[in-house]
Amino acid sequence: MWLPFRCTSKYVLACFGRRVFRSYFHVLGRWRSNITAFMPEAAGFEGVKDRAALQEFSVSNSERFWAAAARHRLSWMSPFHTVQDCDLSRGEIKWFEGGLLNVSVNCLDRHVHTCPERVALIWEKDEPGSEVKITYRQLLEMTCRLGNLLRRHGVRRGDCVTIYMPPCPLAVASMLACARIGAAHNVVFAGFSAEALAERIRDAQSSIVITVNQGVRGSKVTELKKTVDTAVQSCPTVQQVFVAMRTENPVAMTAKDVAMEKEMLKEDVVCEPAAMHSEDVLFLLYTSGSTGKPKGLVHTQAGYLLFVALTHRYVFSYHDGDVFGCVADIGWITGHSYSVYGPLANGGTTVLFESTPLYPDPGRYWEMVQRLKINQFYGAPTAIRLLLKYGDQWVHKYDRSSLKTLGSVGEPINTEAWEWYHRVVGDGRCPVVDTWWQTETGGICITPRPSDPDAEIVPGMAMRPFFGIKPVLMDTEGKVLTSNPTAGALCVARPWPGMARTIHNNHQRFIETYCMPYPGFFFTGDGAYRSKEGYYQITGRLDDVINVSGHRIGTAEIEDVVNQCSAVAESAVIGYSHNIKGQGVYAFVVLKKDVDVQEADLSRLLNDMVSKKIAKYACPDFIQFVQRLPKTRSGKIMRRVLRKVVERDTNGLGDLTTLDDPAAVQEIIQGHRELCLIQQP
Hints:
Blueprint: H1 9-33, H2 35-38, H3 51-60, H4 62-73, E1 82-84, E2 95-97, E3 100-101, H5 103-114, E4 119-124, E5 132-135, H6 136-152, E6 160-164, H7 169-181, E7 184-187, H8 194-204, E8 208-212, E9 215-217, E10 220-222, H9 224-232, E11 240-244, E12 257-259, H10 260-264, E13 276-277, E14 281-286, E15 296-300, H11 302-315, E16 323-326, H12 333-345, E17 349-353, H13 364-372, E18 376-379, H14 381-388, H15 393-396, E19 405-408, H16 415-425, E20 432-434, E21 446-447, E22 464-465, E23 471-474, E24 480-481, E25 486-492, E26 502-503, H17 507-515, E27 522-530, E28 536-541, E29 545-548, E30 551-554, H18 555-563, E31 568-578, E32 582-591, H19 599-613, E33 622-626, H20 639-646, H21 663-678
Parallel strand pairs: 4-17, 6-7, 6-8, 7-14, 8-11, 11-12, 16-17, 16-18, 18-19, 19-20, 32-33
Antiparallel strand pairs: 1-2, 3-13, 4-5, 9-10, 14-15, 15-26, 21-22, 23-24, 23-25, 25-27, 27-28, 29-30, 31-32
């Protein structure tokens, strides 16, 4: 039984009576005294009897902790001899040296041996009710056929294959096939333009690109093969393009093209797995190229797989037989870690979501939860805020009793969205885990940790470090802040297995970005607040901090206050150049549907709220009401575009092809011009 968040003894007593009260704490006592039932690898840790002690042990005895986890959780072809050899000051990170393993074997073969007909993937296709289920046996056969096909076309250990596909079983098989034969994969979000795709292909030096004829999302068809055709024209390394058929519509094939599914049928269902060193490259994943050259972050084999497997199991309280629903695209790190590698390493059933939260209506997520009986749901705050705007009726229409844990990822979730997610979607009974992590970290680093049954959860806070993670806050002079409450630059004091190793072909940039700002620490680029209880709250990117008259304020902090207004669906706050204050505050605000209020009155109300919640200096100079915010197809707000609009640099907007609806930008530009004519700060 899950009790509501903030399960104090008074709450339990008031709601359930003394008998249940005693029973609850009897069970809790047994859990605390038997930590090995929670994490079996903790059996050899002397004096570790509860979660707090395990957390402390994982940091103070990190080598023992990670060694035990690696031996227990992963299947090795040859054991490692050195747990870690890391020097953060020089950007040198090595884990489990000497060990040999294969990631696809860990994700497939060992589960096929014990439960071949267990469902590995549920492909939630664009049209509701047309899901496809793939067992572990079927996924292994698909992976082996594709691995053999790649080998036949010259892909060798150490090569890098670029994958430009929507979420689907063949995309997962492509990733695992690369891992099986020892090649790295470079998954590019199937919404990037041909130019952006080409840049990533060239940097990865791929000879093979895997794609589909067309993509389908929200009933709209996108010509992915045509995008690849354009991209490879400027990619001399590309020798073949493997084309799978997502729709029945034929596409023009060139001399380089290979009909993937047809050719796979010619291959054997057995593919010998390569024995990979723990620090061999598993994949490259490029961060956004919105400013400057994209960074191809490198993740390696054993450490990454171990970290995502542990975080998937313990952050979400995942149990065998659960259905895990992460709705992120596989083109992002969330899709890599929690749609593919984490769940499959744990022998889980994972959902691949192809559609949008609004197709065919705002009840899509919750209808899917009912139909697939999803137990853990992991999505982005921007989607939660979007659905909140449509009201509770779309949620209440469907049975969500299967849900046990709700997760949030991608950006800090504001308090109103958190409360709605918990109260309406989770019926007040499902813990909400607001997870903080990055492409660079590989997996979740700070989280409320629902596996701890008595853990307090505070709305909108990431709260506690995961096992083995030691976050610290630094001041502007590079000193560690030890008192509470406090705020500063978020760094990590100890290396962990899942972290990125370098930037592809540019290790110096890796050092300068993550290791040099605070020598001896890993700099995340984020700011954070630590409460008097020691809980962490992410305040946003440090480059999203506004300096108003010498006062530093995070844009996420202002957004959180603005979003608490009952009339507001979501907002985006940026800083802009101000002649007097240095920087001013500019807010873009989306109202909920059917809100009847004068914009001038609402502007005054929002400024009053910000003044009361934060300070007068944080009040927006401009509040522009918009119908929608410019977002990528994964739901990320493009603040870069908003800054360019406010700076009136509309010629420097850059590549807008990844936006879900580019027309939103023109609406915002026109609204900005009209607002500036009316109001001057």
